Amino acid sequence: MYADLTPHLTPPARAWLDQALREADSQPGLHGPLAVWELRLAEAGRRCGHDHADAVRVLILHAARAGTDALTRVYSQGTAAERRAVLHALPHLVAGPDARPLVEDALRTNDTRLVAAAVGPYAARHLPPHLWRHAVLKCLFTGVPVTGIADLERRAHGDVELARMLGDHAAERTAAGRRVPEDLYRVLALTDPTATPPAQAADHGPHGTDGKES
C-alpha cells in the first residue's frame, strides 16, 4: 500500500507520512489519554489530501500495531473518516472476532461509506450468518454496491435463508411500486444451491466451510 500510495503524494506530504509512520512505530498501541499517532490520523486529509487519507490512516494504524482496544478508541472517538479507516484496517490488525462490535455499529448507520467499509474481509470472516445476511440487505437498502461485499459469492452460495429474505424484500418493493435493484437479483442468483460452488477461500472464519447456520 505504501509503495502504491507514495508516488501520488507531494514531497511535503510524503515527508509528513514518513514522520507519522516513524512516530507510530516508536509508540505502538495505547499511550496515555492520546497517542501521537492518533493525532496524525486527524491530520491525514489535510496533509496528504482527502483522496489518499483512507490509505494514509490505514498505514499509520498498521505502523502503530493498533490492537482491538486502540482501534475501538479511535473508532469511538473519531470522525466518520477515521472510523472508516479503522474498518479498512481490521483484517490487517485483528485476527479474531473481538472487533466485531465495530463492524456491527457501522452497519447500524446510514453512512454509505461506513457501510461499504464494514462489509470487507473482516466481516466476511467473522460475522455470523444472520448478521451477515442483514449486512447484505443493508447494502441493498442504502444503495451500497454488492460488488464491494467481500467473499459474497462463497457466503451466499446455497443460502436458502438469504434467498428467502431477498425474495421478501423484492416483494415488498414491488407491492409499494418501487423498483427492485439489479444488485438484489445478482445476489439472489448466487444463492442458487444447484449452481457450481465458488472456489473455497483460504480462511472461512469461525462458521465452518459453508457459512450456513446449523
Please write out the topology:
Elements: H1 2-5, H2 11-26, H3 36-48, H4 53-63, H5 68-77, H6 80-93, H7 100-107, H8 112-118, H9 121-126, H10 129-142, H11 152-156, H12 160-175, H13 182-190
Helix pairs in contact: 2-3, 2-4, 3-4, 4-6, 5-6, 6-8, 7-8, 12-13
Protein name: Sugar phosphate isomerase
Region (Disordered): 192-214
Keywords: Isomerase
What attributes characterize this protein structure?
EboA_dom; Sugar phosphate isomerase; mainly alpha; 2 domains; 214 residues; elongated; isomerase; 0% strand; isomerase activity; single chain
Write a structural description.
- The protein is mostly helical and 214 residues long.
- The protein is 62% helix and 0% strand.
- The protein is built from 13 helices and no strands.
- InterPro entries: EboA_dom.
- This is Sugar phosphate isomerase.
- Keywords: Isomerase.
Q: How widely separated are the two ends?
A: 39 Å
Helix fraction, binned, reads: 55-70%
Mean pLDDT: 90
Determine the number of helices (DSSP H or I, runs of at least 4 residues): 13
Most strands sheet:
none
**How many whole angstroms does the radius of gyration measure?**
19 Å
Return the domain count.
2
Oligomer category: single chain
What is the general shape? Answer: elongated
Output the helix-strand order: HHHHHHHHHHHHH
How many β-strand stretches?
0
